[in-house]
Amino acid sequence: HVQLVESGGGSVQAGGSLRLSCAVSGYIYGSYCMGWFRQVPGKERELVASIDSEGTTKYADHLQGRFTITRDNAENTLYLLMNSLKPEDTAMYYCAADDTYYGYCYAGEDGFGYWGQGTQVTVS
What we know:
Elements: E1 3-7, E2 10-12, E3 18-25, E4 33-39, E5 46-51, E6 57-59, E7 67-72, E8 77-82, E9 91-98, E10 114-115, E11 119-123
Parallel strand pairs: 2-11
Antiparallel strand pairs: 1-3, 3-8, 4-5, 4-9, 5-6, 7-8, 9-10, 9-11
């Protein structure tokens, strides 16, 4: 049974930083593409960043430079470091896993079939 559990969300002032974590269990973590998404009530879910099993990353264009996605395969943990936070970064952040292409993120947003429960980030 696959489980993804996010942590690290909270309230922060504009300009501050947060690091989100996602603990993964129940499968061979290293062979999955991993991603962070966010969603604001009433708006579509947005892919923030993804990282494949080899560490290749991809970011939403407007977030690159402020957000950094990393993974620790030995610890089965995914991270998202968010710097220079803005009020518009306020959202529920979700960690997700994609097992479509054995660790590669070729499937895009539609490939993510496993989800965590989310962690709220509020920037004021």
